Records
---
Amino acid sequence: MSTGLALNRCSISVCRTADTLLNRPTVPVVRNLKFSRRLIGNCSTVANPFVVVADDDKYGNKQVISLTPRLYDYVPTNVREPKILKQLREETSKLRGSQMQASPDQAQLLAMLVQILGAERCIEVGVYTGYSSLAVALVLPESGCLVACDRDSNSLEVAKRYYDLAGVSHKVNVKHGIAAESLNSMIQNGEGSSYDFAFVDADKRMYQDYFELLLQLVRVGGVIVMDNVLWHGRVSDPMVNDAKTISIRNFNKKLMDDKRVSISMVSIGDGMTICRKR
Ligand SMILES: C[S@@+](CC[C@H](N)C(=O)[O-])C[C@H]1O[C@@H](n2cnc3c(N)ncnc32)[C@H](O)[C@@H]1O
């Protein structure tokens, strides 16, 4: 799958054993970490399969946590997931595309950012059945509003049912259609610089476009969170060059020099970058 496969044999074997026992596909996180190369030929490190060591000498012997399936299963046990979100997650798990929904720890981080910001006006690009948008709507004040954009009407029906069940429908403005068109029309309507928070979790080939549009809609000091910035580890693998990977890789690279925002890439879920408009 990636060059990471060749880098970290010790960790891989540990991972595979756990995955085999749990009867599920191998989790790619460990295999894709550049930080893993020091493990080659040092199988004593298998004694602690949760830790990998920086490959690049610039980082010294910096140790970072790698998420094995067991450790990953531990994370959600430390998330305070509201009952209604759990119900939605479990219902969605039976649907096609369920792997797309945000994880409980990611949704909790989004809700926390909204609360820290004191956000009232939010946007989500890529709603699916509504897990992350509901997490945000639940913490918005009664006067708050979330514009929820998605092109898939079937998924949106599930989302709307859950907004109703959770009693937050009055805070959510669902926009069914191509997200870039919805965002453009919001700009045309004079809504520029009026939003506090945005979350992007849709078409990966459109990341730069979504970012440019949202940068117009979000106020100075507002936050844009971009999901899937690690793209299952593919971004760090020079052998992977499909359109989505290239788009995210280019987006990440360009963001490094983008003086319009301050940034923080967080390796939660499939990677999220938090961008604060300057
Ligand atoms: C990864 S899922 C979103 C998951 C959601 N944030 C959650 O936590 O459940 C991506 C969604 O983006 C939507 N999408 C993809 N491309 C789109 C586009 N160009 N315009 C609008 N929606 C789009 C898909 O229909 C899909 O529901």
---
Amino acid sequence: MCPAAPAHSERVAILDAGAQYGKVIDRRLRELKVECELLPLHTSAEDLRRDGYAALVVSGGGASVYADDAPKYDPKIFEMGLPILGVCYGMQLMNYSCGGTVERGAKREDGVFDVQVEEGSTLFEGLGSSTKVLLTHGDSVDKPADGFRIVGRSGQIVAAIECAERRLYGVQFHPEVDLSVDGNAILSNFLFKVAKLSGSYTMESRQEAAIEEIRATVGDKKVLVLVSGGVDSSVCAALLHKAIGPERLIALHIDHGFMRHEESSGVVKALAALGVPIDALDATKDFAEAVTEVNGKTSLPLATECAPELKRKIIGDTFMRVTQAMVEKKGLKAEDVYLAQGTLRPDLIESASTLVSSNANVIKTHHNDTQLGRIIEPLKDYHKDEVRELGIELGLPAPLVWRQPFPGPGLAIRTLCATEPYLTEEYDRSSAALAAECARHPELRLTSALLPVRTGDGRSYSYLAALSSDAPPDEQWEALFTLAQEIPCHLHDVNRIVYVLGEKIAAAPKAITPTTLTRDALDQLRAADHIVTQTLTKYNLLRSLAQVPVVLFPVGFGVEGARSIGIRAFITRDFMTGKPALPGRDLPLEMLVELQRRILAEVPGIARIALDITSKPPATTEWE
Ligand SMILES: Nc1ncnc2c1ncn2[C@@H]1O[C@H](COP(=O)(O)OP(=O)(O)OP(=O)(O)O)[C@@H](O)[C@H]1O
């Protein structure tokens, strides 16, 4: 599965016992400039030896070593002579496999605890006699295996063991998480003092390795890279250019009409400045007129279609068709071309985790050939922030490198399309229930309105609820956020809540302004989005806020023909879950005032600005 490594390899294998923490260990090791791979726990000692790993980390996992369904592993891994760090379940497995015992559910510990550690253990060198760590476990080591000694305790519980002679170490806690304050020091001790690695996996060395790999894979063939205007594909193009030069690189950008302000021209300019020739195709009209077919039924043309899934499908289909036509026009045959994809490490890790649960389908999709040619993934070894670092090293401009993630279908899925208001039989009942929820917090002085539009995805596609009040909630945002958490739990047909800035909503709007992907609607959204980007840049918030989708929704709040803008300032590290940025803490209050003032003054036809105050879950990051 892994490419054979040279004999002097400094790679560490992280054997994933099924916990989310495996990914975090991967991240930490790379930060410590150590190359690592996340592999399923059942990887055999023979494979690990063949691939030349220098050390192993066995991760945490939810099972008990005695359970019938405990994840499979090869006991020989503990006899290979490699230095091993077992973390949580990994430590229990190491102890059990080497002949010790594990006590089931002795005493659960979940949270941050002080553990007493032995300073004489190489693992804890340089630390004091106690350290704060995250413990989250039920089982724990009872009798250490022969040759092991206890080097850490949390009360009566064994928190760390070692067999220094065999370079086997185990910790019950999680050194990889931020909550373990000396976690990095402990990992460093293992990597550099026990395993004697050098920590030479630097950005520079990785760039060289990536370039070598591209050259070796591609040979004298050509490479096609589709450049979206986002970070990953731009960095991918710049790296490929450095690896194979401009003659054999075909970089293609498609303007589908849903790009942000000057995004297409910006990416073309930035790459041209590096000498990367990029073909930009204006396919706005192709996209607007395109249709798709589902179950034998033809959709409306994209510019008039409202259903989110149909919009996405039309864009996906048209994207393939336009690209294919472009490739054919250039006389390129699939067998002569590699297609470069900006797949990042977390994408591959997701697949590897699926492998652990014996579902190998996903990883395969990464290696399938496509109609457009065989795939190479030059960034597969990088995390998002590392891609940004690489981009800067390659000479891409900071504003491009720091662009926020933007979905492929772009503004098309940030324009809530509807030609009719969404009003179900439950509308009145749900409106009353929403008002009752707000009335439970009289101190917030809220007025509520169930808006006649839907947001969300296939799992939950339902009403958008709006709250407003007479006075800005300056001190009350936190209470408002708590209420926004509660509302979807009690009202199952509401999945997103916004707070409408400015005066309170006079009456619940039951009408909408018909909106589809037409020029005027897209121009409104593009202009508002640009103001948001400028304002975030001014307040230096582009980096702390992971993603700030700006959305156009077809409600004029009583203003004939007007629409409104939703802003979802979203904080997340993992992009799986997240919470809205809190005004007054994460967003300066004066910035909100400025945003509102500018959008209303500069974008014609916008009635209100609404701040999305819902967490994920229940609300998705994007509105559709
Ligand atoms: N308008 C476009 N023109 C050309 N290629 C595109 C366009 N939109 C998307 N792509 C291609 O499809 C890939 C996946 O799109 P997606 O929006 O999911 O990007 P991503 O993985 O976030 O990467 P990026 O940061 O480069 O946008 C992009 O990396 C790019 O190769």
---
Amino acid sequence: MSLPGLSLPGLGPARATSSTPITGNASASQAPRTETIQPQTEWRFEVAFSQRYNIKLESGSAELFGVELAPKQTYTFSGFKGAVFTWQGCQLEITGTAESEYAGQETEYAVEWLNVHGMLKTLRYQSRGDGPRVLVVGPDHVGKSSLVRSLAAWGVRSGDAPTVLNLDSREGVLAPPASFTVVTCDSSMDAENGYGISPMSGPTVSAVRTPLIYSFPFASPTEKPEAFKGLVTRMALSVTNKLEEDTAIKRSGLIIDTPGSLNDPKTSYELIAHLVSEFSINVVLSIGSERLASDLTRKFAANKSPEETVTVLKMTKPGGAVERDNAFMKQLRTQQTRQYFFGSSKESLNPHSHTFGFNDLDIYRAKSASMGDADNPEAADDDDDYDVPYANKPTSNATFERITPSTTMTGGLVAIKFCPGDSDEQTVRDSAVMGFVYVSDVNETKKIVRFLAPHPQKWKDRALVWGYGWPEAVADLVV
Ligand SMILES: Nc1ncnc2c1ncn2[C@@H]1O[C@H](COP(=O)(O)OP(=O)(O)OP(=O)(O)O)[C@@H](O)[C@H]1O
């Protein structure tokens, strides 16, 4: 891959770096301390949900996944693994505790990732209106989402407005989990919150973006490949229309993040091919798997006209990318659900309670294959560790079925769709999401359901989709 000319503010020229971590601490102390970070190295840290870790840039310049840190501002992390990178060196004041922290020199960030940014920038300016359409694929925990976030942030810093799609239903972007997001990044991103926050109730100090949200209440596309393909086709139509409305956004192109489960030749290459075709992908970034990169090169490189060429680039798994195990991911989903309704410690929200009679609700159950039989909850797989390989999960034909509310729904997340309550199954599946509500209580005797919602307005005739099994029910959201 060539190194295009780069002109990111505050960045020096990229150069190769050596590869061993400088230090390694099992945990950090509470006392404030100063760490001096050498040029072109990164300060990696892993913070549990029970911990708080504060970073303040005392001198020099630094960035976190593409977002520059403001001097003297305290950034707080909890339930987060990441790295602060510095091009020219910096001093960080650190307080709080972390499970691990060390300076890493082996950083793909300064070389490979920046090269990709430069390439996208060149493609944006060489294009005749159509920006690069990038698909990022690879196994779990190889840095896909971090790369997408960094490319988006660098794109914004270069004056572009890339549109990012999250297709990983295990972690929400500007939305609770079990959703897919389309968001155009047209203003600075946030070091702590990444894409910022989505507009809900109450004043905010973070950047607010208006995303387009779809619901995919399954842990992996491989659980319901046909539903995934149908939804992707719908999203591609919406995204194409959105890009056509604004030449600057169209020229900035797309960056699509995918779940690691697509890295499976038997179950998923067809889904990757579907994404490539529906979004007219012309660049595939394959991280952390030689086999995937080689298979995709063979699949997409053959006999294409110049307009249809798909360039597949093989990228290295970054030294800092670490596993987020099932327990961590479950806690993250709970935190995302809680934040959707109650906000964060910085900007709290006041959710509203709504009560509906059974007869006033049109609820569709999306049955996750990982959860066994919803009609027989005792038989359901309560192994919420989700440790069976995706490809071996049982599949079921029923995707969305209309149900009468039951206590099984308590603690569940429900998507309110834009479509009317009596829509057909495909419309219910593909309709975008107005918002989410949480099922606080179901009274089967009185036939009423109590929901928690971010907004005071009641919704009228809308289809409601409940993911039975995905995301996991959150028991103690309302205490
Ligand atoms: N250079 C780095 N230094 C420290 N942590 C990093 C670095 N790059 C990524 N990480 C962290 O490693 C974890 C895995 O990275 P990321 O989520 O980007 O991978 P992924 O391939 O998208 O994983 P998944 O498919 O499971 O979502 C994340 O917590 C991320 O913040």
